[in-house]
């Protein structure tokens, strides 16, 4: 088969290589920078049997019409893994909460297995880091290969949908945003991809046809989660359930464990992850770290409330904004201002490329997260710092 793969910088190169190994004739085009693969003009003069393109590509891109059949990167990964997938595979997608949900489920499954997230790809049970790559669909391919090699499970975090090749797909959030040059909605694309999965788990209140809602399996009240599904029946307590950023993730992980025939009681000792409400104290200063790819207004507000609960009336410095401009959903200036207004910090440091007119009054700017932390530490002696920067970590 003659195949054209579009977007080499977001996993297309890996997909093209895997398709070539499978015996296909493949061309690849870097549709954004034109630096790798063949020139777009050359591809425009050729005919193909299949075009593979990412969900986020402009649907009016001229190269999409070079073949009678078109599939997404997610669907291409599905085809590549159908004959060589891990014995147990769970795919996790959503605007936020993916990493926490995936890591919490891995905490229950133990090992052997492979956890693939934006924080890195780890082999269990030793939790040894193999590498750190993106969470594009293509990155699932090497993670799946490692899981097959160790004879274990795979939990894979994916952006903008799932391949559907796993045993279970988990949608962590019903949040939506525009993508594909503003011509598509991210949630609709995720839901469309979920239709290929044999079982789908969604948060309470999110409606996806045919999906299982988390509250049909487990119920969270305060800091206690009670579950009943099949042979699994019981409850566990964890203070993280009081935090909105953890409540949904732990709820979903508990429900997913039940659906997979595992007991979620082990979530009682699940601890905060770096960049996800992790708390540290140094030189009399308390820091609540929520700088991660899922940072948003709600996360910032929750982190500030948590910091004030821990730090009392100490002055609060908020570091907020966007470091990773490639993160799909971004952190719009209006949302940053709304978060600052709701939190009312004593000082504000804004990270990212925002127009001066968009900055909250009195805010100090920083080039990146590291610079933002440095500036906040200079402002805060014995006070509290909240990190709510959207960034890959």
TrEMBL record:
SUPFAM superfamilies: MurD-like peptide ligases, catalytic domain (SSF53623). InterPro entries: Mur-like_cat_sf. GO terms for molecular function: ATP binding. This is Coenzyme F430 synthase. It comes from Methanofollis formosanus. The lineage of its organism: Archaea, Methanobacteriati, Methanobacteriota, Stenosarchaea group, Methanomicrobia. The gene is cfbE.
């Amino acid at each position: 088969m003659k195949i054209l793969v579009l977007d080499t910088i977001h996993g297309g190169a890996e997909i093209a290589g895997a398709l070539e190994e499978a015996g296909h004739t493949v061309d690849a085009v870097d549709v954004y920078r034109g630096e790798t693969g063949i020139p777009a003009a050359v591809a425009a003069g050729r005919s193909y049997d299949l075009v593979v393109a990412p969900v986020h590509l402009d649907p009016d891109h001229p190269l999409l019409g070079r073949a009678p059949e078109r599939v997404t990167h997610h669907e291409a990964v599905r085809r590549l893994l159908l004959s060589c997938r891990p014995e147990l595979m769970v795919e996790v997608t959503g605007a936020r909460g993916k990493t926490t949900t995936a890591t919490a489920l891995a905490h229950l499954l133990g090992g052997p297995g492979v956890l693939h997230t934006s924080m890195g790809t780890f082999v269990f049970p030793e939790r040894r880091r193999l590498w750190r790559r993106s969470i594009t669909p293509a990155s699932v391919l090497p993670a799946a290969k490692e899981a097959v090699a160790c004879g274990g499970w795979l939990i894979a975090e994916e952006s903008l949908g799932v391949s559907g090749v796993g045993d279970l797909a988990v949608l962590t959030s019903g949040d939506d945003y525009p993508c594909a040059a503003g011509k598509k909605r991210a949630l609709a694309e995720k839901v469309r991809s979920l239709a290929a999965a044999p079982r789908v788990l969604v948060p309470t209140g999110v409606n996806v046809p045919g999906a299982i809602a988390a509250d049909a399996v487990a119920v969270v009240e305060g800091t206690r989660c009670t579950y009943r599904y099949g042979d699994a029946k019981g409850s566990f307590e964890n203070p993280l359930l009081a935090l909105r950023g953890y409540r949904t993730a732990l709820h979903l992980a508990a429900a997913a464990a039940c659906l997979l025939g595992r007991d979620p009681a082990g979530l009682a000792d699940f601890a905060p992850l770096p960049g996800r409400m992790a708390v540290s104290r140094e030189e009399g200063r308390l820091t609540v770290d929520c700088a991660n790819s899922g940072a948003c207004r709600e996360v910032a507000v929750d982190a500030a409330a948590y910091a004030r609960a821990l730090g009392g009336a100490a002055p609060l410095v908020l570091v907020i904004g966007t470091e990773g401009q490639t993160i799909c959903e971004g952190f719009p200036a209006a949302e940053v201002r709304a978060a600052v207004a709701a939190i009312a910090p004593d000082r504000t440091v804004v990270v990212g490329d925002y127009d001066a007119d968009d900055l909250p009054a009195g805010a100090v700017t920083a080039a990146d997260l590291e610079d933002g932390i440095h500036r906040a530490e200079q402002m805060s002696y014995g006070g509290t710092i909240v990190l709510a920067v959207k960034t890959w970590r």
